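Long-time lurker. I teach an intro course on protein structure, and each term I like to show students one example going from raw sequence to a predicted 3D structure in token notation. This year I'd like something fresh instead of my usual example. Would anyone be willing to generate the tokens for the chain below so I can use it in lecture? Attribution to the forum is fine with me.
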Amino acid sequence: MVYCEKCGIRPVPEKDLPVLLPEDAEFRPGGDSPLSYHEGFLNTTCPDCGGKARRETDTMDTFMCSSCIFSGTVRPGTPGRPTSRS
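-- Reply from a regular --
Happy to contribute to a lecture. Here you go:
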């Protein structure tokens, strides 16, 4: 999603997908998305008006944390492997 002051929240056009994430994002303490500090990713143009816009930086679904916790409890006693190939 792209946030434009003039047009509001706009979806990234299908022709521009996937939006590639930067490989040099800086992880900082505090829990904020590293994308929120990456000017090259954050600043973009509105797909409708061509004006200045900002990209969405919260790319992690809210269920991700609980999914990770669940994965650790699926197979207790199997260190390093939350699931089995069989």
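Some talking points for your students: The first helix runs from residue 39 to 42. The chain is about 15% helix and 15% strand.
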